[in-house]
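Loading example: each entry is read as four labelled lines plus one structure line.
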Amino acid sequence: MQISEVAKEFDLTTDTLRYYEREGLIGPIAKGKNGIRNYTENDLQRIRFVKCMRAAGLEISFLKRYLQLFDEGDKTVKERREILVEQRKILKEKLDAMQEAYDRLNYKIDLYDKNILDKNLM
Amino acid sequence: MQISEVAKEFDLTTDTLRYYEREGLIGPIAKGKNGIRNYTENDLQRIRFVKCMRAAGLEISFLKRYLQLFDEGDKTVKERREILVEQRKILKEKLDAMQEAYDRLNYKIDLYDKNILDKNLM
DNA sequence: ATATCACTTAGAGTTTACTTCAAGTCAATA
DNA sequence: TATTGACTTGAAGTAAACTCTAAGTGATAT
């Protein structure tokens, strides 16, 4: 699969895909003799993972570390698990903060709908 | 209340507080004759709001717009409501994406715990 | 009286994650 | 044959949100 198709499929730009590769999150993607990238199903799976995690705000540096360990094989299982647990914690905290803001927005909008606004409260 | 106390209370730096003021999110904070900021309860309420929304990833530019409208009084009620609804939608989408990533992390960690790992799946 | 500390300002610097640019290759189509 | 379009590269540029620096003021502690 060619880079432009992958980009379309995942709603990423080709620049972003090359950037991820440069950063070591994915690939190196095999290239045909014309030098053009050809993404395998495995590559796509990895991009799926990266996209999901990036959408949740996990940092490139973590993903890079994790995926590098992944490529090193079984001996890194323990460290990988630790990283995941750590990231889950960070993510949970963010989720909670966002839920709180979401609830607050809902409450606020409700006040606007009911026309009960306090001049001093945002 | 002095800037350093406010910073401590909200776990922000004094630089961030001055930055927010410069950007028009809060204040202008009244200053004593020595030129030192003195935060009122109203200022703190506003910082509370800003902090909550920033923690959820809402952009400075939105907060600035919203709070400026707020300061313009009742005639901006309709527009303010619209902004809140729009931001709620953005926030909901992010929340869903994060929940998905969170579930995925949980699932993954579970696989690590049960020692069922697929060489090809991150 | 002198040093320390919290504060002030304007403005420059940093980090993260892209995004754009310039210059070039290669295959296919008008 | 010429030009169009997708690809390649390395490197420079950008946006958002801080974060830090330098130079200075003024009140308090030794």
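The CA atoms of residues 11 and 104 of chain B lie 31 Å apart.
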